């Protein structure tokens, strides 16, 4: 039998039917049905998330907090037949299960501005619902994940060890990154500015990480919460902008990217509606920096990997990480022009 069948049995499903869910890029995810019920079953990628107890503890903390005082709910973790939240198979793979919320589905791009508004509002409402949770009780699951200063330092280290050929190819792109180092300085100043608060941020705000109701078409809740940890305002807004505002993703040629104004407005207005008055005035004043910071950071990460001979991101051809970096910095340039032309508040 396949490992998923053994795992399903440990969570109480006998002779289960299962289907592979292909949207997730990190974990192996299945919908399992049996005994007149369904669940989401995952084989956890412990190469990315090295401490299963941390992601399990964070999830339970978030779930219990929302259950006590919020209308927003997330899927409950299910227990094994012996009362545990995870199961380890004979290959030392970790498995976990979540309740399946009926009548829901996930969206993918391209999507209407109404769907994007609803998703952005849901992400904002999620962070607002955790506003009174002591964020220090959430443990970092990927330390330094959105630490822009650390990412910049990684690029500098990659430059110092890069081959002459790759360094020459990257020269113009490196100049564009250096010209925007003020974004790194802005990030470094966040921790000393009381106008910016550390919050429980999702950190992976793809459209596909939101469940939508099949009847109303409205967002129900965020999923894939393994990256929920302390962070700053720009992470979730910026990652939505980075991943949704162009009709082409980071694997497209740089000259194909552009800023969709309707999508951008839906993200900003949706997030503002969700986060409500828990947003500080300083955060509000700087909301349009969010997309710039995340595009800059992702461009740095792709270029650092290219200069390090492609040790992190999977590639399909030798120059792909360079092309991805160029894509992100090009989109950043276009976003800068778009934001500069916005009416002043």
Provide an overview of this structure:
There is one protein chain. The chain is α+β, with helices and mostly antiparallel strands and 345 residues long. It folds into two domains: 3-100, 2-Layer Sandwich (Phosphorylase Kinase, domain 1), CATH 3.30.200.20; 113-340, Aminoglycoside 3'-phosphotransferase, Chain: A, domain 2, CATH 3.90.1200.10. 44% of the residues lie in helices and 13% in strands. It contains eleven helices and ten strands. A hairpin with a 6-residue loop joins strand 1 and strand 2 (28-34). The model has no long low-confidence stretch (mean pLDDT 95).
Q: Which shape, going by the Cα principal axes?
A: globular
Helix content: 40-55%
The CATH superfamily title of the largest domain: Aminoglycoside phosphotransferase (APH), C-terminal lobe
Largest β-sheet summary: 5 strands, antiparallel
Tell me the radius of gyration.
21 Å
How many structural units, i.e. domains? 2
Question: Which runs of at least 5 residues are low in confidence (pLDDT < 50)?
Answer: none
Instruction: Report the total helices.
Output: 11
What's the CATH topology name of the largest domain?
Aminoglycoside 3'-phosphotransferase, Chain: A, domain 2
- What structural class do the secondary elements suggest? alpha+beta
Strand content: 5-15%
CATH class call of the largest domain? Alpha Beta
Q: Termini, distance in Å?
A: 61 Å
SSE order, as H and E? HEEEHEEEHHHHEEEEHHHHH
Mean pLDDT: 95
* Number of E-state strands: 10
Strand order of the largest sheet: 1-2-3-5-4
